[in-house]
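re: ur question from yesterday

yeah so i grabbed the chain u mentioned. its 147 aa long if i counted rite. heres the sequnce exactly as i have it in my notes:
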Amino acid sequence: MQQPVKRKIGEILVEDGLLTQQQLTDALAVQKEKGGLLGRILIERHFLEEDHLISALGKQFKIPYISLRHYSINPDMAELLPADFCHKNLMVAFDFDSKRIYLAVTDPLNDEAIAEVKALTGHTPQVFFSTMSEILNAIFFIYHEKS
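ran it thru and got these structure tokens back, copy pasting raw so excuse formatting
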């Protein structure tokens, strides 16, 4: 049985009205010439905001986006995951309940780190996309402002 083809991120951004076809064409030409990630090129050229890219990636991977700056982060998270683990993997646990740990990530395909979260906490990770800047700010809040 064939896997369904994932929609391309550029197509999602154009369909959602976040990017014009011309901007996508320009960014793809830069990517072809210089290499790099399309999303990074779009942000560097100021065609797109980081949170719009992450939201579209969430659609592409069928993983919800969470804006951590609008979420009341549980300060007790520092007791569940080490700060260096969060920095290394660019992920942060922002809340938990009796069964799940809510995890904001920049890379939902980092299965090894996500599995390690379950091993470290005993909770099943519920994964959300978030921006790198929001994750780093949350790590600072949880591990450095608390002390």
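noticed a couple things. The mean pLDDT is 90. also The radius of gyration is 17 Å.
anyway ttyl
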